[in-house]
UniProtKB/TrEMBL annotation:
Listed CDD domains: RfaE_like
GO MF: ATP binding; heptose 7-phosphate kinase activity; heptose-1-phosphate adenylyltransferase activity; phosphotransferase activity, alcohol group as acceptor
EC number(s) per entry: 2.7.1.167, 2.7.7.70
GO CC aspect terms: cytosol
Name under which the protein is recorded: Bifunctional protein HldE
Domain Carbohydrate kinase PfkB per the UniProt entry, residue ranges: 18-315
Domain of life the protein comes from: Bacteria
Organism in which the protein naturally occurs: Megasphaera paucivorans
Annotated segments matching region Ribokinase: 1-336
InterPro entries listed in its UniProt record: Bifunc_HldE, Carboh/pur_kinase_PfkB_CS, Cyt_trans-like, PfkB_dom, RfaE_dom_I, RfaE_dom_II, Ribokinase-like, Rossmann-like_a/b/a_fold
Coiled coil location: none
Family statement: In the N-terminal section; belongs to the carbohydrate kinase PfkB family. In the C-terminal section; belongs to the cytidylyltransferase family.
Keyword Kinase: yes
Record: residues binding ATP: N207, M208, K209, E210
Length: 494
C-alpha cells in the first residue's frame, strides 16, 4: 500500500497541489572561483572569479523548491524597489512562482546574501539587508491576500521565518488562525527564542541550534535529549508536532502526545547545507498536504534533503529527482522463492554488491508473527541502501530469548514470509543470541536497530561503517497480538 500511495503522490497529486509560502524573501548570490595563491597585500586567499549567479533565497527558496516539485506556488513577503528587488522579480517569473503577495516598499533594501566559493567550498558570506517589521497596513494587505488565495483553493501553507520582519506576531498568528478555520495544514520554519506567535501550527521545524536557543540551553544531538527538549517545548507552546532537523542524525518528529518518528540522514557527501531546511519544509508539507502519513512524509523530506546538501549553493530539488529516488527505493526484482544461504554464502553476495558500489543494510530480529510495525521498520531500513539483508533468529535462539512458548512460527516459515517482502533481498538464519558473530562474517555497510538504543551500545557496531537507529511503530508487537488472542480465548470469543 505504501508503494501505491507514494506512486500516486509523486505522479498525480504533487503536480496539482496549491501551496502558499509566507515569510522573508531573499536573493542568494554566488561568486564562483578558484583559489591558487595567497594575496601579497594580506594573509588571505585570492579567489580568481569564474562566474556569478543569482538564486531565490529564504522564503523564496522554499517557494522555488515547491515550484520545482511542480506545485502551484503563491509567495508573500517584502522586498525593496532596488536592483536586487528587480532581480528577485525576474527570478520569481522565471520559476513560475506567483509573487502577488510580495509587497514592494520604496527605499527598502531587498535582503541579499552573497557567498564566495573556491573549489566548491564556501569561503565567505556577505549580507546586504535591512531588518524592519511590516507596517500595520502591510500586515492587513498580506492577510487579505491569504484570504483570497484560500477562497481560490489552497492545500497547505509554509511560514518561513528568517527574522527579517515580515512575520510579526500579527501576521504569524493571523495566518495560522485563518488556516485552522479553513482546515489547511501549516508548517513553520521558526526563528528567535519566543515561539508563542506560532501557537496552533501543525508542524514547527527547528534545527538543533534553533531548538537550543528557544529552550535556553544547548541540546545534545542524541535521541533522548532531543525528545526531552521537544516535550518541554510542547508544554510551553501549542504545536501539534515539532520536527527537529538534526544534521547527520537525520530528522525526528515529536508529537504533542509524545509519539516519536525518526528517520536517519541519507547524504553520503555534504558540500553545502544552504537551503536544506527549506527543502525539508517543502517536501514534508507537500506530503502532508497530500494526506500521506507522518512517517512516509518524513522519509520523503529526509531523502530530498540528502540530495540538496550534496550540491553546491542553494539548490531546489526537482520532482524528477524525487521520482528517481523512488525508483531506486522501489524494488524492481521479481519475487523468488526463499533460498536458504549459509552465512559464508551470504557474505559472498554482499561482497559482490559492495564491489559494484552498492550499499548493503543489515538488521536482525525474531519477526515472530509478522505485523505492520515490522513492515514499516523494514521499509524504512531498506531506504538507507540498495540491499537489505535480515539476520533471523533461529527457533532455538528465540526459545532462549523469548521463553518456552516461542516462537509461534517456525524459522523457515518466518524466513519465507520475510523474503517475500519487496524491500528484503535476503534472509540468513543464525543460532546465537546476538548477531555479533554473523556480522563479523557478513560485514555490511549499515547496521540498523529499532527502538531506543544508542549507536555506541549496539552489538556488532565494530563490523559496519555506521549504525542507524529507527523507532518502532507504536502499538504494534508480537506480544500484543498474542495477548489479544489469549484474551479472546479466555472470553470464549475464539
Amino acid at each position: 500500500m505504501t508503494e501505491s500511495y507514494i506512486d500516486n503522490f509523486l505522479n498525480k497529486l504533487l503536480p496539482n497541489l496549491r501551496i502558499a509560502v509566507i515569510g522573508d524573501v531573499m536573493v542568494d548570490r554566488y561568486v564562483f572561483g578558484k583559489v591558487e595563491r595567497i594575496s601579497p597585500e594580506a594573509p588571505v586567499p585570492v579567489n580568481k572569479v569564474s562566474h556569478i549567479t543569482s538564486a531565490l533565497g529564504g522564503a523564496a527558496n522554499v517557494a522555488s523548491n515547491l515550484a520545482n516539485l511542480e506545485c502551484r506556488v503563491f509567495l508573500a513577503g517584502l522586498m525593496g524597489t532596488d536592483e536586487y528587488g528587480t532581480v528577485l522579480q525576474k527570478l520569481l517569473t522565471d520559476a513560475h512562482i506567483d509573487g502577488s503577495g510580495v509587497i514592494s516598499r520604496t527605499g527598502h533594501a531587498t535582503t541579499t546574501k552573497l557567498r564566495v566559493l573556491g573549489s566548491r567550498q564556501q569561503m565567505l558570506r556577505l549580507d546586504f539587508e535591512e531588518i524592519t517589521t511590516l507596517e500595520s497596513d502591510e500586515e492587513q494587505m498580506l492577510l487579505q491576500w491569504l484570504q483570497e488565495r484560500i477562497q481560490d483553493g489552497l492545500d497547505g501553507i509554509i511560514i518561513s521565518d528568517y527574522g527579517k520582519g515580515v512575520l510579526t506576531d500579527t501576521v504569524s498568528s493571523g495566518v495560522i488562525s485563518i488556516a485552522r478555520k479553513a482546515g489547511i495544514p501549516v508548517l513553520v520554519d521558526p526563528k528567535g527564542t519566543d515561539w508563542s506567535k506560532y501557537n496552533g501550527a501543525d508542524f514547527v521545524t527547528p534545527n538543533m541550534k534553533e531548538i537550543s536557543d528557544c529552550i535556553g540551553y544547548t541540546v545534545a544531538n542524541a535521541g533522548g535529549d532531543v525528545i526531552e527538549a521537544a516535550m518541554k517545548l510542547h508544554e510551553r507552546y501549542d504545536f501539534a508536532h515539532l520536527m527537529v532537523t538534526r544534521s547527520e542524525k537525520g530528522i525526528t518528529v515529536i508529537g504533542k502526545d509524545g509519539k516519536v518518528w525518526s528517520n536517519p540522514a541519507t547524504a553520503q557527501e555534504v558540500f553545502d547545507v544552504s537551503g536544506a531546511g527549506d527543502t525539508v519544509a517543502a517536501a514534508f508539507l507537500t506530503s502532508i498536504a497530500a494526506k500521506l502519513s507522518v512517517r512516509t512524509s518524513l522519509q520523503i523530506a529526509n531523502s530530498a534533503a540528502g540530495v540538496v546538501v550534496a550540491k553546491v549553493g542553494t539548490y531546489p530539488i526537482h520532482r524528477s529527482e524525487l521520482l528517481q529516488l523512488w525508483h531506486q527505493w522501489r524494488p524492481n526484482r521479481r519475487w523468488a522463492p526463499y533460498e536458504s544461504l549459509s552465512c559464508r554464502e551470504m557474505a559472498g553476495k554482499i561482497r559482490q554488491w559492495q564491489q559494484n558500489g552498492e550499499i548493503v543494510v543489515f538488521t536482525n530480529g525474531c519477526f515472530d508473527i509478522l505485523h505492520r510495525g515490522h513492515i514499516l521498520y523494514l521499509q524504512q531500513a531498506a531506504m538507507l541502501g540498495q540491499h537489505l539483508v535480515i539476520g533471523l533468529n533461529s527457533d532455538e535462539s528465540v526459545h532462549r530469548l523469548k521463553g518456552e512458548a516461542r516462537p509461534l512460527v517456525q524459522q523457515n516459515d518466518r524466513a519465507v514470509l520475510l523474503s517475500a517482502l519487496a524491500c528484503v533481498d535476503d534472509v540468513v538464519i543464525f543460532n546465537e543470541d546476538t548477531p555479533k558473530e554473523l556480522l563479523a562474517i557478513l560485514r555490511p555497510d549499515i547496521l540498523v536497530k529499532g527502538g531506543d538504543y544508542k549507536a555506541d551500545e549496539v552489538i556488532g557496531r565494530e563490523y559496519v561503517k555506521r549504525v542507524e537507529i529507527i523507532s518502532f511503530e507504536e502499538g504494534y508487537s508480537t506480544t500484543n497480538i498474542i495477548d489479544k488472542i489469549t484474551n479472546m480465548v479466555r472470553k470464549g470469543i475464539l
